[in-house]
Amino acid sequence: MAWSAFHRIAWRILLVLFVVSALIVCQRFLSLSGASAPPVLKHDADSSLSVFLCPPANCTETLHNLIIHNRTWSYVRCALYDLDDETIISDLLSVSRNASVEIVLDEGSPPIRELENAATIRREHGRGLMHNKFCLFSAPDYKLLFTGSYNPTMNARKNWNVIAVSDSEELFSQYLEEFNELSGGTFHGGKPSKMAVVRLNNSIVFARFCPEDECEYWLAKSIESASRSVFFSVFSLTSKRVSAAILDAALRNLSVKGFAEPFQSGRKLVESLQRSGVDVSFLDTPGMLHAKLFIIDSRLIVTGSYNPTASANEINDENLLFIESEELAGNIENLWNKSYSTLTARSYSP
Fold first, then answer.
1. Strands 49-54 and 161-166
2. Would you give the DSSP letter of residue 289?
3. ∠ CA 306-310-315 to the nearest 5 degrees?
4. How far apart are CA 233 and CA 285, in angstroms?
5. What does the alpha-carbon distance between residue 327 and residue 203 come to, in Å, rounded to a whole number?
6. How confident is the model at residue 338 (pLDDT cuts 50, 70, 90)?
7. 158-174: burial string, b at 16+ Cβ within 10 Å, e else
8. Which residue ranges make up each domain of the chain?
9. For a designed S-S bond to 238, which of 90, 188, 266, 321 qualifies (C-beta 3.0 to 4.6 A apart)?
10. pLDDT band at residue 265, thresholds of 50, 70 and 90?
11. pLDDT number for residue 32
12. What span, in angstroms and rounded, lies between the C-alpha atoms of 95 and 99?
């Protein structure tokens, strides 16, 4: 009886600590949003989220394994800017024999003849890009979300990317709502998504879908909230607001370090940051530095399809994940330092 009472008290204490920590994170997102009502807190404590840096991880192999992981998928839904990777196309074709497969592609993505009769393929139309890179896998008792900066293309096998994978049904449902909006023909700005913060067993996560959810605003406010450090990797940087937030962090004497793709369109702002004394370099990689990654105070990861550019903020279909986890953030920072230390960083672009 004594042990039973002790366990009840211990669990109550743990529950209080859990609620308090979750409310603190909710309050942090509330302070970023400037909203009068707090975000909705969703509990999904039996689920987790993993973040991978490619390389050393293999993004193509990770997606391949997810697709073939469960041959009893009921349905697969993907919103992809581009798709021509032979392995992934073959996997989707194989799954389509027993599952419903639906894919939304950007208008400029090449035809996929292998899937024309096996999957429902819809294409973006209008001004801007359908720039998302996420897939949803559903079985009767199991769901998976795959998202990040990775396009399943042959060229992407050489590129440097970040991906996130989660078995959270709550996150799955948020992304499914966005997918249904896209597959229904609403591109480049739909209904703003709910402010729902999801508590997983290893992280607290917040998703934004843009342009309707203002990715630029949320990213800039996250950088502005930094108290110790800002680490970032960008493929393209033309957002003056995000650039100003990075510069302000450096002027506040925080630890600021960044890397950029040498052949991207945002060289001018990167070079302006360099002239202002910000530690940001152009990084030579075997492919492209395609990762879209910010790590704030070694505890908040921001990643997804979104490049900090005017087009991405105003007209492209994008998504961002804000992941609160010191463990995950620390792992990605350590992986970056180990994997990228042998590459050449330059203060100028070709």
1. antiparallel
2. B
3. 75
4. 13
5. 9
6. confident
7. ebbbbbbbbbbbbbbeb
8. 26-346
9. 266
10. low
11. 58
12. 6
For residue 324, how many C-alpha atoms fall within 13 Å in the half-sphere facing its CB? 20
281, 346 contact by CB (below 8 A)? yes
Position 34 scores a pLDDT of 52
Q: What DSSP element (H or E) covers 77? A: strand 75-80
pLDDT band at 36 (very low <50, low <70, confident <90, very high): very low
Which amino acid makes up residue 101?
V
Place of tokens 């599952």: 99
Q: How far apart are CA 35 and CA 214, in angstroms?
A: 14
The secondary structure of 89-147 as a DSSP string is HHHHHHHTTTSEEEEEE-TTSPP-GGGTTTSEEEE--SSS-B--EEEEEEETTEEEEEE
Give the number of other Cβ atoms within 10 Å of residue 194's Cβ: 12
The model scores a pTM over 0.90: no
CATH class of the domain comprising 26-346 = alpha beta
- Which residue do the tokens 């100028």 mark? 348
Closest among 292, 322, 290, 325 to 306, alpha carbons compared: 292
The Cα 188–Cα 127 span in angstroms is: 8
Gap between the Cα atoms of 230 and 222, Å rounded: 10
pLDDT at 17 over 50: no
Please check whether residue 307 is in contact with residue 320, taking contact to mean a CB–CB distance below 8 angstroms. Answer: no
Which of helix, strand or coil describes residue 55?
coil
Longest Cα pair distance anywhere in the chain, in angstroms?
A: 73
Q: How far apart are CA 221 and CA 89, in angstroms?
A: 38
> Scanning the structure block, which residue is given the tokens 């769901």?
143
Burial of 324 (0-12, 13-18, 19+ CB in 10 A): buried
